[in-house]
Amino acid sequence: MPRSLLNTPGGSLLLPDTALVLVDREDGGNLLVNPPHEVWERGELTPAELVAWSFLVAAAGRAMLEALPQLAGGCINYWEAGNWALNHDASPVGPKTARERRRVHMHLLGRSPRAPSPSWRWGEAPTFPDFEDRFEWAAGHKRLTCDEATDIVTRADAILRDRYEVTDVEPWDRCGDCGYPAPSDDLEAGRCAECR
Q1: What's the distance, CA 171 to chain centroid?
Q2: What does the pLDDT look like over 26-67, one tens digit per residue?
Q3: pLDDT score for 82
Q4: What are the b/e assignments for 144-167, b being 16+ CB within 10 Å?
Q5: DSSP characters for 79-114?
Q6: pLDDT value of position 81
Q7: Which of 140, 153, 141 lies closest to 14, judged by CA?
Q8: Sign of torsion over alpha carbons 136, 131, 26, 123
Q9: What are the phi and psi torsion angles at 5 (to 5°)?
Q10: Are 172 and 183 contacting, i.e. CB atoms less than 8 angstroms apart?
């Protein structure tokens, strides 16, 4: 499961599931941004929801660029995803329509000029595997560390408040076991869901 880092009126900032990290931390890192509720197409969000989600996406991308040394001289690719959910072999197996199965989420894909992975060569479009090869392709990709994630959340929180005047960012803290940031409401006795 993805790990929730920060909740705002615009949605949630998350680390990807450990089994499906699209960009290894050394290549630039990978975060997800979900809108405030499930939609199959971004046009289904209200104007206020779309603006709030856009603020969160922009703040998280800027925070990645400011916090991660591996992104020095690099950039972020913003990729609205949901394609693998439509694959014939995705659960439930069989033909699917986008309206019934796709769930909008934005991948923030760090692009480092020094990325060691051939899928993330600087100056080239990223390459993704076919649905059936996705777990093998992602095997070995590491999430951002707890300190990297905390630096990003700290900066994103400040950017949301200072630049975008978002005053109702939900409180967050670090898990007492693993050290990753998590929304305070997700912590039980100071421990995140992954550590419980």
Answers
A1: 19
A2: 999 999 999 999 999 999 999 999 999 999 999 999 999 999
A3: 87
A4: beeebbbbbbebbbebbeeebebe
A5: EEE--GGGSTTSSSPS---HHHH---EEEEEEE-TT
A6: 84
A7: 153
A8: positive
A9: -110, -40
A10: yes
The ranges of the chain with pLDDT < 70 are: none
Q: Find all residues with CB under 8 Å of 90, minimum gap 6, and list them.
A: 84, 96, 101, 131
What is the secondary structure of the chain as a DSSP string?
--EEEEEETTEEEEEPPGGG-SS-GGGT-EEEEE-SS--SSGGGS-HHHHHHHHHHHHHHHHHHHHH-GGGTT-EEEEEEE--GGGSTTSSSPS---HHHH---EEEEEEE-TT--SGGG-TTS------GGGHHHHHTTPPPPPHHHHHHHHHHHHHHHHHTS----PPPEEE-TTT--EEEGGG-BTTB-TTT-
CA 189 to chain centre: 26
Domains detected in the chain: 3-186 (3.30.428.10)
Residue partners of 91: CB distance under 8 A and separation at least 6: none
- Residue at 157: amino acid letter: D
Q: What does the alpha-carbon distance between residue 100 and residue 180 come to, in Å, rounded to a whole number? A: 33
Is-above-0.85 flag for pTM? yes
Distance between start and end Cα atoms, the chain:
14
Cβ-based neighbour number of residue 118 at 10 Å: 8
